[in-house]
Amino acid sequence: MQKNISTILKSVSKPGRYTGGEYGQIVKDKSKIKARVAFCFPDTYEIGMSNLGGKILYGALNEMKDVWCERVYAPWPDMEEKMRESNIPLFALESKDDVKDFDIVAFSMQYELCYTTTVNMIDLAGLPIYARDRDENAPILLGGGPCAYNAEPIADFFDIFSIGEGEEALPELLSLYIKMKDDGTYNKKDFLREASHLKGFYVPSLYDVEYNESGTIKSFEPKYPDVPKRVVKRVVEDLNTSYFPTKPVMPYIETVHDRIMLETFRGCIRGCRFCQAGMVFRPVREKSAEVLNRQAQEIYKNTGYNEISLTSLSISDYSCLHEATDMLLDWTNEKKINLSLPSLRADSFTKELMQKVSSVRSSGLTFAPEAGTQRLRDAINKNLYEKDLLNAVRLAFEGGKSLVKLYFMNGLPTETYEDIEGIGALAKTVVDEYYNTPNRPRKPFTVTVSVSCFVPKPHTPFQWEPQDSLESLRHKQMFLAEKITDKKIHYNWHEATVSRLEAVFSKGDRRLSRAIALAQSKGMKFDAWDEYFDYHKWMEVFEECGIDPDFYANRTIGYDEILPWDVIDIGVSKEFMIRENKKAHESKTTPNCKEQCSGCGANKLGKELTWCPKMK
């Protein structure tokens, strides 16, 4: 039933988060719909509306004539308080219908610290939070996104997970749902069993997990012979022909990314050993420059945005970058549309790119050396040299830039205090390069050093590594602060307690679900927001549940140990990961995929890869 929320909107901040009715939203005739999907993002409207993956899936599902997909975002605490006071359950923006009345409730799980917000949204919808407690009349709860690559900490809350790319997989799942409803064979148990046969769908309830006395996993096995032992991720093979939204919903309020977002390619050739995205999004698949240009023109026509951002994990590695930017600049300059090239690598930064970026942006540039010494950069396989960085910043200074931001991590495997000190030394070298550049700009100059804490992630060569202790991470942060004395260098760092909790959930198993549920019952949510994150409360929750967070975050894992995420096959083999882990401890690098195929295994997932020699 549609709820009248107008009375409470007057008393909450940013009511535009909850009104719906935006230009570009999709509304369908409910009488002609066979399956309704509530697409939920467990964060605020401003963040969820900026997520490109959500836009793709919203549009792809609504391309199906029998399906209506609507949007749902986490209400801010002031709105949630009013909703609970007025007995208004969580609702979808397009129809204002209750989420509990939908057929499929799908959550996009982008970040581990959104887990309590997710459970809170399930509760606010009026649904039992545990999958085992929801009956036949309850919707199917579906999870997806990066966190699904280790879904175990939240497995007890969901019926099914979509593993990999969803724009082709989710329509298949909806088609199965509609077919079983139409032919009268549908019940939740049989649907989930059938769904497990589709490539890329993981049903946690169809697997038994046993533990050793040490707390490690003894066995992880499917309950039935027809259920796959490992779930292979889904991959969209041809980005030129796959669905891409050119009529996005236009937000009423300012969002994080108010711009045209053009996806140039998926995957990464680099193989940084700490980076989960670089592994799980393999293999590399590109869009042509012509397709990008056409999509940009269509989106501009439908939105009027004055900025275009070319998105990827590393835009410098897009083989059609110069061709695509030339095509775009042919018409964007005339219309005064900014062209943004994020995620530039220092070793691929050229004067030509500098001129293109300078034509539309006059602020600063960001590079990510990640480590302060060459030895550690080799250990993490960054394949970046100090001379590359200095050449890039020199070009930036000559092009009029006076603001440089450098991203680093501390707590990386094999790291020493010499490596930490190297961060400050490298930043000082950049400062010196500025003053050694004759034609530098005469305006305020700053180098910002931003240092995050290393979090070991599943499906990476560092998945077996421990995270530094909280005390060690903090000590390294203060040590670096003492070593940075140049006033032109601004130093900031990420709160270590946040990174520690992220590590616990990144490497966690199903036993963590009770801690998440307990935390939500104590009012904890929006852990990704500084004003709501409470590390001490989390430690109290873990203690109450009998959970040792060090077991997950600070323990070295043996190569032969069964990992909670081994049930997921991302295409990259464990043998490759082990080889890369061993090379890290020897500070040996691996060439990028464009230079040489190192046999990671991801080529088995796609037919036509741009750079993998085995697929040519």
Question: What does this entry show, briefly?
Answer:
By secondary structure, the protein is of the alpha/beta class. The chain is 32% helix and 14% strand. The chain has a domain at 23-232: Rossmann fold (3-Layer(aba) Sandwich).
Topology record:
Layout (H helix, E strand, L loop, with lengths): L5 H4 L25 E7 L3 H4 L3 H11 L4 E7 L3 H9 L18 E5 L6 H10 L15 E5 L15 E3 L6 H14 L5 H8 L5 E2 L4 E5 L5 E6 L8 E2 L27 E4 L1 E2 L9 H5 L4 E2 L2 H15 L3 E5 L9 H12 L5 E3 L10 H8 L5 E7 L3 H6 L6 H13 L4 E8 L6 H19 L10 E8 L16 H14 L5 E5 L2 H11 L6 H9 L13 H11 L3 H5 L14 E2 L4 H12 L31
Parallel strand pairs: 1-2, 1-3, 3-4, 4-5, 9-19, 10-13, 13-14, 15-16, 16-17, 17-18
Antiparallel strand pairs: 5-6, 7-8, 11-12
Helix pairs in contact: 5-17, 9-10, 13-14, 14-15, 17-18
| Low-confidence segments | 610-616
Beta strand count: 19
Please count the helical segments.
Answer: 20
Q: Structural class of the helices, strands and pairings? A: alpha/beta
In the CATH classification, which architecture of the domain at 23-232 applies?
3-Layer(aba) Sandwich
Cα shape: globular
| Percent range of helical residues | 25-40%
Termini separation comes to 55 Å
- Beta-strand share of residues: 5-15%
| Highest CATH level, the class of the domain at 23-232 | Alpha Beta
Across the major sheet, the strand order is 2-1-3-4-5-6
Overall mean pLDDT stands at 94
Fill in the CATH topology of the domain at 23-232.
Rossmann fold
Quaternary organisation of the protein chains: single chain
What does the largest sheet look like? 6 strands, mixed
Corresponding CATH superfamily of the domain at 23-232 = Cobalamin-binding domain
Question: Cα-atom Rg, whole angstroms?
Answer: 24 Å
